[in-house]
Amino acid sequence: MYQPAHDYGSVHIADEVIAIIAGLAATEIEGVKSMTGGFGGGLVELLGKKNLSKGVKVEVGEKEAKIDLYLVIEYGAVIHAVATKVQENVKKAVEGMAGLKVVEVNVFITGIDTHMPKEDEEEEEEEVKEETEEGQEEQKEEDTKAKKPKKGKKEKKENEEKKDK
Fold first, then answer.
1. What is the helix (H) or strand (E) element at residue 28, kind and residue range?
2. Per-residue confidence at 53, pLDDT binned at 50, 70, 90?
3. Which among 107, 115, 104 has a CA at the least distance from the CA of 23?
4. Which pTM does this prediction carry?
5. Handedness of CA 25, 109, 69, 117 (dihedral sign)
6. Per DSSP, what are the bridge partners of residue 113?
7. 90 Rama sector, left if φ>0, alpha if ψ -120 to 50, beta otherwise
């Protein structure tokens, strides 16, 4: 627990607060889909409480902090660039808000999110719908053609029968 000294007394900043600052700073970066946590974090979320420090491990000394982040990155994002931006943003946020010197920000990529964004899913659904409608129209046309009696074959058959007699 970090305790900056002042003339008026002391201020105590819990490790959990540092973890929350780091987690929020990390998720601000484009390309970060989510943070991954352990069993405890998942259990807290199941109970309806959002765990803002999920995927963050902090070691806080008197004036310094070491932060480990566990991230899921969006598919297509440049992992190294995202990780570097996360490190810079977390360091800036923790140093600015808590007054600690951040000596390490370690980023661990634990997964890639391959789900399409909502807009892409809607576009794909629309394309499938259009293809299905086109296929149904083609099938109706084929069914209609198949139901029509074919005059040519019937007349040919009658003519052949007359010739044989």
1. none
2. confident
3. 107
4. 0.61
5. positive
6. 74
7. alpha
